[in-house]
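User: Before I run my own analysis I want an independent prediction to cross-check against. Here's the chain; please return only the structure tokens and, at the end, one sentence I can use as a sanity check.
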Amino acid sequence: MKTSILSSLAIILMVCACSQPAQEENKVVIATLDPGHFHAALVQKTSLPNVSNDVYVYSNPGEDLQSHLAKIEAFNTREDNPTSWNEIVYTGDDFLEKMISDGKANVMVTAGNNLKKTEYLKKTLEAGINVLSDKPMAINADNFEMLKECFEIANKKGVLLYDIMTERNEITTILQRELSLFNDVYGEQIQGTPENPGIEMESVHHFYKEVAGKPNIRPAWFFDVDQQGESIVDVGIHLIDLVQWQCFPNQAIKISDIKVTSAKHWVEPLTFDQFKAATGLAAYPDYLMKDVKDDMLQEYQNGEINWQIKGLNAKIVALWRYQAPVGGGDTHYCVMHGTKADIVIRQGEEQKWQPELYIEAIEGGAEYQAALEARFVELESKYSDIKLEKIGDKQWHVSIPASYRVGHEAHFGQVTEDFLQYLSEGKLPDWEQPCMIAKYYTATQALRIARGE
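Assistant: Structure tokens:
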């Protein structure tokens, strides 16, 4: 009996010893490539399931890298729910080639200078490494052609290429999408015209921000549209993605479904003092002198696109300003026009700079209100504690608990967890890849039109 027990224990120990390396081999191992934007760090803001704590960082040396490592260290040393990342750093001009030859990682994360990003994606995918990329993955028409090749390579190699679309996780956007699916509340989607679109969005971002009372220093290249990209292809990608995701949920969109009807861009002038405050630099770098007139930086960081998706007319406006009003921050506005109601997100001073959701009925009445209240019972079963508040004859406000307002930074973790789930399944949802191709086509085609190319 005793011998039998000892034999059984020996077998268990052997199984455990054999299975442990296999478990480590099955873990996701991240390589962070050229982390020039704080979004790269936000992927690691929390510990991630089945992801190794060893993260390999490949980059040129410099302030961008040091800023990234400082953010990771802050996550590791915070009092509340600290992480345990071990950053293993390689620096050198050959950082991309080194990442590939090392073969340490099975997922590459990148967020930074966009000048060579599409090329980095292509070479990484050719090496059979999955990619989780910050937007934008293409900032011009040439990049877009290469990006299409990237998706072909990913399919051939059996790996995933995915961009980080955080705004799908914003609660007001989620509820706006849900409400638009209720025919008795929203009606049919109005197709609209280029002059009066069926859906409109506007986003305002700011160059100068303070975090904990200190300037959030931006790298100088962020102010060069040849390296960062214009607002149409940068912030605009988020808005285009939301239009597709909200109006055509779980539907594949092809390039043939898209027609860009008009696009324009215009400059946002910054004084040298404003540039200095945002970057900490004492002079403009040489590569920005092409955009300097009368000692002011003149950048095309405002843009507008009007386009059609399967006949739906849509409009987005992506704007940059120097600094937000006191108490304010970046803002998002969206109105979806249905035959029975408009569903609107506003984020202005009246909303205390917090996104708020409204239903504005075309006719209203007791029957409409009864239908709306019945639908809210359904929504409350999925999103507990949201409330419907009547604020006018034909207008309602959706009261959303603070627990759902997790903030922009937390959305990166949510997207990363989605990506890890897709990775475990070995595929993206069938509609994701064609929709990514369609949105980058829309943005880069609009940029060509705006530039008169």
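Sanity check: The longest strand covers residues 296-309.
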